[in-house]
Amino acid sequence: MSTGVAATSSNGRDVARAIDELRRGAIVVLDSPGGALAVLAVELADEATLAELEAEGRAGLLLAHPRAALLNIVNQRAAASSDAVWVERAGWMDLALSVAAADPVLDLATPFKGPFRSVDPGPLAAAANAAVRLAKLGGLLPAVFAVATGAADSRLRVAASAVTDYVRADTLRIVARAKLPVEALEDTQVVAFRPAEGGPEHLALLIGDPVLGQPVLTRLHSACLTGDVLGSLKCDCGPQLRGAIAGIAAAGGGILLYLQQEGRGIGLINKLRAYALQDQGFDTVDANLRLGFDADERDFELAAAMLRLLGVGAVRLMTNNPDKVAALVANGVAVTERVPHAMPANPHNAHYLDTKRVRSGHLL
């Protein structure tokens, strides 16, 4: 008899395989009680794979609700309440125009789109919503071509419910631990975490001598390759990372969690797309929404799971973001104090910091 943990791990492996296939530009089938959908990521489609998908009928275009709202589709009754909006592809919507509908970076190059007609997915709604979430999990634009398919379809299949319920924190485990002297304090350890089915690894720096039985000074830092490594001035991530390590060291010890959730959880490539939209004049919140994402897609349940695996039940949290406090508390980690952690602005990130304060509620 299988255990709940084993079932969760098995479902997770199925989802991980589907993510990999979708990221390779392959067709994946989403099964649900209302029927099955064969889907293909819009940004990776070419004429050959789209023709393969459409062997039994013309594909619809599934867009995430924020992107559909930008295209003025969600005022149609069929699109009003769905996470994934099904757009009927009229005869003029070839591959290039479908990609343009999905990718906001192309909006200035192709400003006149539509008219679009949304279609009620009916019993396929669960599969449609799962398909868009699968694209998000893969760090792709949340847009897919979709065709109803049957039980005889032999391509990789995954249950829509497994995608909808997929939580990487459920199977997180410690896989490596070592000493890692850092500039701020040589007495530092690094601990690596990985979900059982694979996927992004996350790190914890145990700086100095944190007393795990007491509220631990802790920083949750989401990975930012451009800021942490390349020294980007567009954000405050690099200074926040280095400042947190130095501040924890000066306090005598604590923990920094380094979460692989680039671009508020939308992934590195989509973050660069958001940068391109910022170059066009949109702020960081509107850029995410135009791409089809929520303003913040991060999963702080991962952070709570990491802290529990380290034996930490209570923290003093270094953050300016009340949502981080609320997320940890909601996932069973007590936050006894919020420790402010603000960095000075520069000419390139002043508007970004203003957006954090005004639109995202950061206490800056």
How would you explain this protein's 3D organization?
The structure is a single chain. With 364 residues, this protein is α/β, with parallel strands linked by helices. The chain contains 14 helices and 14 strands. It has a seven-stranded mixed beta sheet with strand order 5-4-3-6-2-1-7, sandwiched between helices. α13 (322-330) links the parallel β13 (314-318) and β14 (334-339). Residues 1-6 have low confidence and may be disordered.
- Number of continuous helical runs: 14
Q: Total number of β-strand segments?
A: 14
Can you summarize the main beta sheet?
7 strands, mixed
Give the strand order, joined by hyphens, for the main sheet: 5-4-3-6-2-1-7
What string gives the helices and strands in order? HEEHEHEHEHEEHEEEEHHEHHHHEHEH
- CA-to-CA gap between the ends? 53 Å
Strand content: 15-25%
What is Rg? 22 Å
Which range best describes the helical content: under 10%, 10-25%, 25-40%, 40-55%, 55-70% or over 70%?
25-40%
**Low-confidence runs of at least 5 consecutive residues:** 1-6
The general outline is globular
Whole-number average pLDDT? 91
Which structural class is indicated by helix and strand composition?
Answer: alpha/beta
Write the layout of secondary structure elements.
Blueprint: H1 4-23, E1 28-32, E2 35-41, H2 47-53, E3 60-64, H3 65-70, E4 84-88, H4 95-102, E5 117-119, H5 125-137, E6 143-149, E7 157-159, H6 160-164, E8 172-179, E9 188-195, E10 202-208, E11 216-222, H7 225-229, H8 237-250, E12 253-259, H9 262-265, H10 268-279, H11 284-291, H12 301-309, E13 314-318, H13 322-330, E14 334-339, H14 350-360
Parallel strand pairs: 1-7, 11-12, 11-13, 13-14
Antiparallel strand pairs: 1-2, 2-6, 3-4, 3-6, 4-5, 8-9, 9-10, 10-12
